[in-house]
Structures are given as structure tokens and as C-alpha cells.
Amino acid sequence: MNTEIKILKQIEPKDFTLISGLPGVAYIGKLSVDYLMKQLKAELVGEVYSKHFPPYVLIEKDGLVELLKNQLYRSNSKDGRNFLFLTGNAQAFSPEGQYEVANEVLEWASDHGLKRIFSLAGFVTDRPFDKPNVYITTTKSNLLEEMKKLGGIALDQGIISGANGLIMGLAKKMNLEGACLLGETHGYQTATGRYLSDAKAAKAVLNLLASFLDLKLDMDPLEKQAQQTDEVIAKMAEVERRIQEQMKQEAKKPSYVF
Amino acid sequence: MEEDTWIRYYGKTVVEEPVAIVGSPGLRSIGKIVVALIAKETRAKPLADLYSSHLPLIYETRPSYAAHPALPGIGGVKVRQGMVELPKVQFYACPKPSLIMVEGCHPNFAGQYQVAQKTVDFIAGLGTKMVVVTAGYGSKERKVCCAATSQEVLSEMKKKLGVEVDYQGPFYGFSGLVFGMAKRKGIKAITLFAGTTPHPQNPEYPDLEGAKKILNTVRPLLQPKKA
Predict the structure, then answer these.
(1) Mutating which of A59, A61, A194 best tests the B interface, going by the most B Cβ atoms within 10 A?
(2) Global pTM?
(3) Do A63 and B146 touch (CB under 8 A)?
(4) B99 forms bridges with which residues in the sheet?
(5) Distance between alpha carbon A27 and the CA centroid of its chain, in Å?
(6) In this complex, do B112 and A66 lie within 8 Å of one another by their Cβ atoms?
(7) Where are chain A's structural domains?
(8) Can you tell me whether residue A21 is helix, strand or coil?
């Protein structure tokens, strides 16, 4: 096995919009896509396995084992539009692996009528903000202009590392219409280096995407999560402030006192 | 050499619908000890060896199961009484009770999935009806808990072995991936985790007591089939 898509349910090739969000900075992409899938009652159609995913399995709370994988879901909106979603619990580890997995998924999606791609992710800034910006980058200039009108900010320069960025680059190579929506975050991490989920940024990303795609979403549950994110971030900022204060005090002490 | 992972099959012991017991030198070497104890008790015979260019002789990671792409290890051979041996995954078999024992070995980062896949394919080819992976987990309580490939298997094992779910989190290395790959292959599988105290200076320092707890728990699965 290198990379393999296991089809669980055959789907008819149609004009699909693929929305991708894999675990990355502050889990913004994954959180957004998982939320959207729930709202649109998406069904699982395929699983992506790869030897390029990190070499471990997960033992879940219910005691069941899970290999690391990406998952493909599909749903129809009320007006009959077709959506595919790419989510999962891992990204490939190496650049070679990320290209391989992204190419396999895009090839499969192309065979099933892929027309447009949206990739959702996070963008770390250090500016203080109340409302996170949503930065955008697209494969076609007309799409960029349309999204700017809805409040998106064109990303002037920067990098989008990992699969969420790569899929957009490959989409451009395939001459597909696509946009990457990057929710602004401070990217807080725990002591073990794990990102805290930023529901506030996910909400901002979804608001822009829903406006663009004209989707009616119930944002109340995500709003509650966003409030919790705010509380956690406020606590972390307070801890950070206290540590800085303490360090300043320590620095003032004469060095010969022990 | 075309393939970089291959199996040398001795094929001397015939096993029918065996249960495969898997263990590797993971946390406190519990899995590896369980496999050695059962092999000794059942007088199991060597069945096959799996070799791979992804199996290092010297690990640059500590513990060996925490593979890292930048630390692939160093290849080489073991020498015992003047004879050389490549690092390998070893398979033993016992006809009655029908068992296969798999003593694992941790590949480098790039070969983990390949070696686990080859192992699962091999034991599946022998008609294995169930895989029992054994390992340790960091816990203050010295009890045995379990994880499984499905709720049905979990319920069956809770009843048969009197174990409960306790550990939640990642399961690294050879044994973890064999467990995951068995699920993907459609073979029913469980892991029995023995609670053990981590030994930061030497993570693979043997814990015989933990291994014996698993051995006592797994016994109902080691009984010969009634005619």
C-alpha cells in the first residue's frame, strides 16, 4: 500500500464542489469542514489510507482502534448542488507523501466530475484582534474579486504549508477554479505543542464560504464553541501576561541574591 | 533484490485457524515478553522470518518504537556464537492449541506501514481467525485493559477475558500498526494493554510482572479446540 482510496459507496459523476479541511493550524480547516458536513448531513463515501501518514494508530474513547486516514463525504444542498468533503485525522508526513495523497484524491474527484475546490485552513498572525480576518488566495482572479466583495482579504504574500495549501496548488495546475480561505488565528499551543481548536476563526471562515456559496447554516452551535475559544484564549493570554510580568521582576533582582 | 521486505517461510508446522499473538519491544518490553513466554510454554517452533531493509540493527530513536524520519537507524547484523543474523520479525507456530506467535521488530519511519502490512498479509494467508496484540501502557494501576477492532469483538472479549476499556490515545510502532492493519484486512483483533510504570531512562526495561498479568488474562484464548 502506498496510497489507496477505499470506496464505501459508489457515486455518480456530477459537477462537484470539493471542500477540504485537514488537521492543521488551530484545526480551523478540519473544524470548519466537519461542521459544514454535519449541517449538510453528508454521508461517508470513501476512506484514504496511506503509508505516508504518521506510523501509529489511535485507540478511541470507546476502545476501538483507528488507522490514520482521510475521509471523503458527499452531500447535496437543498437546491440540488453537489458537494464533496475531504477531512481526516492526519496529513501525510513528508512532501512526497503530501503530493501523493493530494494527487490521488484530486484524480479520484476529477473522475467524479470535480469542478471547483475550496480549501479551508488557518493563518497565524500576531496582531491583536476582536474579529478574525479571513485571508483568501485563489486559482483565478475573478474568484478573488468576488470573495473580496464578501469581506475576504486577498493574501498579499505568504506561504500555506501542508496539504491544505498543496491541494490548491495542484488545483491550479489542473486549471480548476478554487480558493483557499484562511481564518486568522493566534495559533495557541499547549505545553506539548498541540494546537488549541480555534472555533472563532472557523466561524469566520464558514461565514464567508456560506455567503459565497449561498448556503444557509445554523451557526449557533459554532458560536457557542467560539465563545469557549475566546474564554480559553483570554485565560492563556492572562497566564502569558503573568509570566512576562514575573520574568520582568526576576530580571530586576540583583544577580548575587540566591 | 527487488522487494525490500520479504519472508522466509519454513512451513514445517501446520496450524488451523490459528490465533496470532503479537508483541514487540515496546513500553517496558511487555509485548515481547508475553510472546516469548507463550512460545516457551507451548513449545512453539519457528515458522517464518520477515526481513526488511527498513529494519535497523541500531536505533537512533529512544525508545525504538518512536520512529522519526530524520533518524532512520543503522543497519547491520547480530552475531551470536560466531553466527550472523539479520534483524527480523519472527513467527513461531504451535499446532495445539493452534497459535502463531509474532515477535515484532520496529522498522524505521519509512517502512512501518510496509512491514506491518506484510506481517498481516502473511498471518491472514495462514487462516488466522483472530489477532491478539499485547503491549504496555503507562498507568498507576497494574491492571490489564483492552481495545478492539469492533464493538462485537470488544463485548465478546469483555465477557471471555473479563477486561475493560481504559487506555485512550496513540499506539505507536510495529504492534500498533499490525492492530490497525488487521482491522483494515477484516481480521478480528484485540490489544491487551498491561498497566506499567514508564522507565524514562530505559523505556524498554523489561516488566515481567506486567507481561505475566497479560499471560493470565489471555489464557482462555490459548485452550485447544474441543473435538
Answers:
(1) A59
(2) 0.89
(3) yes
(4) B19, B94
(5) 6
(6) no
(7) 3-219
(8) coil
Q: Give the pLDDT of chain A (258 residues) as one tens digit per residue.
A: 689 999 999 988 889 999 999 998 889 999 999 999 999 999 999 999 999 999 999 999 999 999 999 999 999 877 888 999 999 999 998 999 999 999 999 999 999 999 999 999 999 998 888 899 999 999 999 999 999 999 999 999 889 989 999 999 999 999 999 999 999 998 777 767 777 889 999 999 999 999 999 998 999 999 888 888 778 777 777 777 777 777 777 666 655 554
Check CB contact under 8 Å for B168 and A67: no
In B, minimum Cα distance to A94 occurs at: B69
- Which among A96, A118, A253 has a CA at the least distance from the CA of A183? A118
Q: Is residue B81 part of a domain?
A: yes
Distance CA A9, CA A78 (A): 21
CATH number at residue B30: 3.40.50.10900
Instruction: Give the residue numbers spanning the domain of B173.
Output: 5-222
Q: B184, A51: Cβ pair inside 8 Å? A: no
Count of beta carbons in the 10 Å neighbourhood of residue A148: 13
Cα–Cα dist A192/A185, whole Å: 19
In this prediction the ipTM stands at: 0.93
Measured between beta carbons, which residues in chain A are less than 8 angstroms from residue B67?
A: 55
Distance to chain B for A18, nearest Cα, Å: 26
The answer as to whether B179 is a domain residue is yes
Q: Which CATH superfamily is domain A3-219 in?
A: PAC-like subunit (3.40.50.10900)
| Total domain count, chain B | 1
Maximum distance among all alpha carbons in chain A?
A: 76
Cβ of B169 under 8 Å from any chain A Cβ?
yes
Q: State how far residue A27 is from chain B, nearest Cα, in angstroms.
A: 18
- Contact call for residues A174 and A106 (beta carbons, < 8 A): yes
A93 vs B69, B114, B154: nearest CB: B69
